[in-house]
Amino acid sequence: xxxxxxxxxxxRRDFLRVSGLTTLALGVVACAPAAPAGQPAAxxxxxxAAPATAATELRWVTNHASIEIPGFExxxxxxxxxxxxxxxxxxxxxDGNDFLNAINTQGVGGQLPDIFxxxxxxxxxxxxxxxxxxLQPLVDRDAAEVNVKDFWPAEVEQMxxxxxxxALPYDFSNIGIVYNKSIxxxxxxxxPTGDWTWSEMFDVAAKLVKKDGDKTTRWGMAxxxxxxxxxxxxYANGGKLFSEDNKQCIINSKENQETFEFFVKQRLxxxxxxxxxxxxxxxxxASGLVAMGFEGSWATQGRRESIGDKFPFDVTYFPKGxxxxxxxxxxGGAWGIAANSKATEQAWAFNKxxxxxxxxxxxxxxxxxxxxxxxxxxxxxxxxxxxxNASPKSVHIFADQMTDAWAQPFPAFWxxxxxxxxxxxxxxxxxxxxxxxxxxGVLTQFQDEVNTIIKQSGA
Length: 459
Hints:
Layout: E1 24-25, E2 56-62, H1 69-82, E3 86-92, H2 96-108, E4 115-119, H3 120-128, H4 136-141, H5 143-146, H6 153-158, E5 160-161, E6 164-165, E7 168-180, H7 181-187, H8 198-207, E8 210-212, E9 215-218, H9 227-236, H10 254-268, E10 292-296, H11 300-307, E11 313-316, E12 330-337, H12 344-354, H13 357-365, E13 371-372, H14 378-387, H15 396-400, H16 414-430, H17 439-457
Parallel strand pairs: 2-3, 2-4
Antiparallel strand pairs: 1-3, 4-12, 5-6, 7-10, 7-11, 7-12, 7-13, 8-9
Helix pairs in contact: 16-17
């Protein structure tokens, strides 16, 4: 999931992103009317007043790498073949900054596309602004077809606002641990089973560090500092970011202080690299500069392409926290229907088609993108991922651990929270010149700042 423009961290879609801005528009531009002139507006219950048989054009806007667009085109074509009175016009905006700027501008102006991509980070913010349609009446009406129980429970939570679903899911992502098998063999460390704690994992990582005098030439671990990844890490150690109602930041707890102090200690000991220690533009794992690292479920194909046959590698489960539980951070992509759409019923028909098991298999499982949103599509994903007979062999772990995924909606103020996290928490984790290692002090300042953000947001 590519991060919003105000975020400085690397996102999951940055791994897949192609250079340049390639926009695909099939017969329509983003600011075009949402439906033919004179078509009735949708009713307040989420139902379209226009009959389903009326000729309709839907605007569909995505935010994906160009490699994914042929799949989207086939889905749109397949839907129109079954629904000849509904034409789907696809526009892809691959750059995350451009995409979010367009969505925010059109949201304010009431000109959002009929159906558009929304990360689970953004479902609650968009719904709270009244930009997206409450899908719950439609989900209840078509319960057997939608089959919500087939979606990952944690993603359902993240797509829910005030007890109602406001999106249908596309994919879901979580984090495992990737390791270089050649380096482990070189040092004489057995391959991990994944039944380990954070302390045990970093004990292994410390053995994989390599130095030439005082200079580190290989680190044992690479760590993602992204805020959504840390939700699970903190939770598994008995800590939380927010209260249950998301109305208060409670990060400055004893449990969270201990967790951050543990990671800072590993950085200061040289187990994972300081900010600026790695060369720019170099993949640290593929180049052998780190022996293990956090790994996104979306990275399987990218890793295979970047590493090739240079060395064998595999993935294993995220470590367990001090609570004995493996609380996994997860976030995903989804599809929302604009509240301003004049073709809600037709957009709903397309959303159901787009998120069906068959479409999910074609878009996610068969090309081995991130974890499919439907549990019924996981066998197809595992089969496709293992069919190549290539590293990593243990790709099934991503789906296996999804049942432990953190389940709480991202709050409406998430974007501002994430900016504050990037400014205060990321430097503490990453280190580098001038980084503050006073964990308690940083958490105190950060909690105060976020609670001010929450108060100002009216949450």
